[in-house]
Amino acid sequence: MKKISLYDTTLRDGTQAEELNLTTEDKIRVARKLDELGLHYIEGGWPGSNPTDKQFFREIRKHRLSTARITAFGSTHYHRTSAEQDPNLASLLEAETPVLTIFGKTWDLHARTALGVSLERNLELIHASLEHLRPHVDELFFDAEHFFDGYKANPAFTLDCMKTAHEAGADILVLCDTNGGTLPHEIVKIMADVQKHLPDAQLGIHTHNDSELAVANALVAVQHGAVQVQGTINGYGERCGNANLCSIIPCLELKMGLDCLGAERLKMLRDTANYVSEVANLRPFLRQPFVGAAAFAHKGGIHVSAVLKDSETYEHIRPESVGNHQRVLLSDLAGKSNILFKAKQCGFDVDRNDPRLEILLDDIKAREEMGYEYSVADASFELLLREKLECPDPYFTFHNFFVLDSKREEDELPLSEATVIVSVRGERAHTAASGNGPVNALDRAVRKALERFYPRLKEVRLKDFKVRVVSGVLRDTGGTASFVRVLVESSDGQNHWTTVGVSHNIIEASWQAVVDSINYKIHLDECEAKAGKGDPGAP
Amino acid sequence: MKKISLYDTTLRDGTQAEELNLTTEDKIRVARKLDELGLHYIEGGWPGSNPTDKQFFREIRKHRLSTARITAFGSTHYHRTSAEQDPNLASLLEAETPVLTIFGKTWDLHARTALGVSLERNLELIHASLEHLRPHVDELFFDAEHFFDGYKANPAFTLDCMKTAHEAGADILVLCDTNGGTLPHEIVKIMADVQKHLPDAQLGIHTHNDSELAVANALVAVQHGAVQVQGTINGYGERCGNANLCSIIPCLELKMGLDCLGAERLKMLRDTANYVSEVANLRPFLRQPFVGAAAFAHKGGIHVSAVLKDSETYEHIRPESVGNHQRVLLSDLAGKSNILFKAKQCGFDVDRNDPRLEILLDDIKAREEMGYEYSVADASFELLLREKLECPDPYFTFHNFFVLDSKREEDELPLSEATVIVSVRGERAHTAASGNGPVNALDRAVRKALERFYPRLKEVRLKDFKVRVVSGVLRDTGGTASFVRVLVESSDGQNHWTTVGVSHNIIEASWQAVVDSINYKIHLDECEAKAGKGDPGAP
């Protein structure tokens, strides 16, 4: 079975998308998730171009990754300097990654217009840049920018660029359809000519979706000999996006019989896609192939009855193979095994026929229809499991809160203050605090009240706070309405956890997420105390 | 030049999409718009299956269409009756369309499992249904459901179905990839075999996007002899959708040199795509190829400077050829050329050497470092340009606000109330309002105060609200700190705009975005008033 390597550029080319903006912490989280999925290369950014990317390469070194190799990306050296003195190439080496990817111009129009150099000088830039970097890295890839457009305009020059990169030591020559305008049959024809001229070069493919053909073009290239596929999660990228790895991977694995992740990891695909869209705070695309919420949703009466007889009748693959599930509006049979799986993961000993499981399933379905998103909010999910399966005593009782925000001058920041009354084991605590906004003030006030009883709450910091309007289903009427979903990420220095709240009212949604965060921390400390100085559970 | 006929099924297969629900009036509006675009066939629905579709066929007869022929869709007759006595076929004839499309089973699994008939009976159903309808219509098409899956399972049976349909008088045999699981090279191989067995049959293609290959599969089929392409506007359809005509048409016209609409009508493509999404009340997909808002949007500094030199460098077609236009996004890589471009687009006459441009650039950079995201918040950016370039009088003066959120019971929603004092031309207004959270209450209170002076603010609705924590740069110290970024999307029914606010305090950030939204609406109305009843500027 031929092995195809998967090269993810969500963190670099993906962030060229209009709506995608990631902090360094976001990037670290995404990189770790992609490593878990089993991708082979993760392009972390362009260290020469901005401080966020530089920071990423410093941070990611502290994490031990299991399968992925981190890659830094940059251009050939500036034409008025030398490779040795080029600050861009220097910052690539400072990134200290085992793999580097250099892009160079291979379209004569671009060399002349965008760079403003002669075609000869362009070949020198490619050669000198790759030769300079070669001794410092394990693997060196060459991204041939605008390869197909370049070939169509001036095949001799484009092939010269490829030969130069090959001779200068590039391990893989990546053919880029940068503008996304190439048709599948053109890919076939042009690749054949490259292979004729460079029979011993390894080829990769990097396509864009401007003609809605990025996935097809990538697959066709693999069929004709490409050994590496570049793309992004959910197809994020500039303009119409990059080739969507969430479609390419299952096509390679399930339809073309090629090995990239293996069947077990493939099941994490949907979870990974959702995770990245949540970190990016972007609405997932409902109709997205393979991993979208509608990908295996059946509406028509004929389809539903046929699917219930034999799901192969209207489903091209088994949804579970990519971690998705069939949705049939009448009776959703999926879910029970997922919950069982997660419950066991959290340490609960539940039997498949336990009647509490049905109640839990109903409750989770109702909540997810409203907009709760448990795939990211693991801590809230674990608390819900505990509540339904163990009915523990609450750590504290809520009585009331008031939050006041006031602003008296145009240029003055508003003042936010909160008062909270709670009680623990019959003892009341009434506290007040101020903060950067109502949620921050509320969070500080309630923690201040509880710290007397649970001193380790002092360790908790709110790391991130995300709010989105979601269209939830109104259970009573079957209609839909706008809800607000709040995701809160907390940390006590050692553990990180995410909690969720959903309500019509943003303060209520935030309150739910904050309360879950506090309860989760107390629970973690309890587990740690029980286990002596052992592992504090699964954060 | 070969002529390809375009067959739209937005009104039938498209409405199988989870989110797409159209009334009869909606369907009439869409059909007239598709006729204006120049599509050749418009499948209006399945008259046997629901009253909306029956009504559509009665109504559409009253409209004179210029190019399109209306088509009714239905299945082969019920297996326990005859074609003559089948109510489904009768309702097709009652639709009185010049064209009918009949779908039949061509996969043995489906004939046996879904219909529950023998393979011989299935052939009879196809033959009798088509033969019965043939004398009553100008054109008769046969949709071979699950054609490719059927062929892979039992080629002899599938080819028998095709021969039967051909002999019974079908003008075109439409090969359907109903489950969307077929790869482009399989289309080529299977079509060649059909053509060998039925050399004088005309073929059509109908694909689904479950593998993100619907457009590629349709194009490949045309290259190998299909004369009709079926699809939907924006790719709407069940699960992952149908083949997207908005991508197929420009590929055929601009890349494959085939005639379908002609260059003039092709320019209406984007307008048509937006019109259909408006009628359906669905958010257009930002990254949609050819017609999406991001399809020709450039963000990276390198791309922007190259595109300004020669747009071919990063655009695969001229955006105007499909009625779209180039957009330059601002981002933290923003340079002088980006801003100059945007200023000109907003109607400001600024010279490259204008000293105000330097000040503006510095200001924008400082704001983007803090976390302002002007690439999405076009309205806030335009207001900033106006402020810096024209120093206009403010529309109102802020004095103060108070917001109170209170919650008194565990199961009670918090109550949010706001009071605001503002003045317009020396006149003070003091109002209060409640809402689903502090920002909603604040927004309502300030608009209530201003509606006395600017009555058209009543038209504005907050459509979406997004909050996230960003790591901004502290200008004074060079360190970083957490800021909150709020994005607000507003609409007055006609125009949509997005505004942004950034602050340590979420209430302040929201306040900025809300104030920008109000100012932008007043500004839009002013422009409209100045222009008479003309275009209100570039929203």
UniProtKB/TrEMBL annotation, chains A, B:
Pathway named in the protein's UniProt entry: Amino-acid biosynthesis; L-isoleucine biosynthesis; 2-oxobutanoate from pyruvate: step 1/3
The organism's place on the tree of life at top rank: Bacteria
Protein's UniProt keywords contain Ion transport: no
Record's keyword terms, sorted: Amino-acid biosynthesis, Branched-chain amino acid biosynthesis, Isoleucine biosynthesis, Transferase
Gene3D superfamilies: 1.10.238.260, 3.30.160.270, Aldolase class I
The EC number(s) this enzyme carries: 2.3.3.21
SMART domains: LeuA_dimer (SM00917)
Occurrences of domain Pyruvate carboxyltransferase (ranges): 4-267
Protein name according to UniProt: Citramalate synthase
Organism: Paucidesulfovibrio gracilis DSM 16080
Lineage, highest ranks first: Bacteria, Pseudomonadati, Thermodesulfobacteriota, Desulfovibrionia, Desulfovibrionales
